[in-house]
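Discussion board: Methods & Data

I've been asked by a reviewer to show the raw model output for two of the constructs in my manuscript, not just the figures. I'm not sure how much to include, so I'm pasting the format here to get opinions. Each protein appears as its amino acid sequence followed by a line of discrete structure tokens. Is this the kind of thing reviewers expect to see in a supplement, or should I convert it first? Here is construct A:
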Amino acid sequence: MTSVTASDESERRVAEALSARASGAPRGTPRPAPSGRARSGRAPSGTSLTTALLIALLAGAVLGSALALISLLAPGVLPPLG
């Protein structure tokens, strides 16, 4: 008569899980396979990066133009930088 301790049981469960994962057996609920149509709603990452860079460039141009107009039209409003 051998008694099974909690650590023996947990070791056995870990070993079973690792062997099942190594053999490619499904675990838990299966996930649906990704299809081309499922991702059609999202923009590719290259497009979103290009859009973000374009927005940053335009925001910088607007800020620079605003500071230039303030310094030209209202001298002394902006503090000197040096």
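Construct B, same format:
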Amino acid sequence: MTMASENRPAFTATVAALTAKATELEIRVHELHRALADLNVQMQEVSNALCQASRSATPYDDAIDGEADDHLPDTAP
């Protein structure tokens, strides 16, 4: 046997192992990409909920541009 023919089974086994590992890594990358997309959706939902809660929790005293004056009773003599 020549050196090339002796190394062929080892080379074939290495290629097969690397191909299998590459496939595993591609699957993992896809899983991580999907998890990041799901996390992004959840973060956006939380952000929207916080914005909505902060808008509804703003006291009239902290209103901008004099909006707070509209709800006070008229106490002028």
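Answer (T.O., handling editor elsewhere):
This is acceptable in a supplement if you add a one-line summary per construct. For B, something like: The CA atoms of residues 13 and 19 lie 10 Å apart.
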